[in-house]
Amino acid sequence: MVGGLLLIAACAESRIKPDASALVTTEPASTSHVPVYPHIRCNNPGFNTLDSIVRVANVSTGGGDGSGIVIAPNLVLTAAHVLEDSQIGLVYIGSQYKEATIIGSDPYSDLALLMVGTENLQPIQISDRGLVSNESVWAVGFPLALDQATTEGEFFRYRNGGLLTSADIDAGSSGGGLLHCEHGKFKLAGMIRSYLARYNQGHPIAIPNRSISVPANAIEAFMSLHGVSL
């Protein structure tokens, strides 16, 4: 174990039973502040953006509640571990869950793509640049299979191919969106994957304000493999 830290997949199988599959990671090194578009700022994400981050559930387990992102018309991106061992997924669109076909899944990048009717939900635009140290980010998902939540934090650094931030998440946030401000507009910087935890008497205890997301360039590469240009 490196640094005594775990990377816990942020998927809630139900409101009371979180998934605890884990990988080893370490804390970030300190970073210097780099201002990003100081004259153009974003407020909290608006309804159009928030509505395009949706609930996702695992049919096989009768739960596996997580989150997803409307990434293109009739396509929803989520974390592969949310749909583990399932042939189909469920996506909450409008006022009901709809069956969704899994058309691509990669356990290494922890990305999965679902085809489902997304009605009038607008896809979230993906960022065309990388994050910089101390840049503000917003994590949006459905922690603990409850209401949608938005938490603000800062990007620290790239770590083991992921985006390490201080945006606080919980089980159920997996597959949700990590947003940032680009020229006054919210764009998708990454997909929420996991949170950091420490072992305490054999049990993982979440570390507040430490989460990992899959970066935008990995999402673009995954989508391209499935014939989708963002």
Structure explained in plain terms:
This protein has two domains: 36-47 and 124-224, Trypsin-like serine proteases (Thrombin, subunit H), CATH 2.40.10; 52-123, Thrombin, subunit H (Beta Barrel). The strands form two sheets. It has a six-stranded antiparallel barrel. Strands 3-4-5-8-7-6 form a six-stranded antiparallel β-barrel. With 230 residues, the chain is mainly beta. The protein is built from two helices and 14 strands; from the N terminus they run E-E-H-E-E-E-E-E-E-E-E-E-E-E-E-H. The longest helix is centred in the C-terminal third of the chain and has 10 residues, at 216-225. The chain has helices spanning 47-50, 216-225; strands at 5-9, 22-25, 53-58, 63-72, 75-78, 88-93, 96-106, 111-115, 136-141, 149-159, 162-165, 177-182, 185-200, 203-215. Mean pLDDT is 82; it is low at 13-39. Helices cover 6% and strands 47% of the residues. A hairpin with a 4-residue loop joins strand 7 and strand 8 (111-115).
Features:
230 residues, mainly beta, Thrombin, subunit H, 47% strand
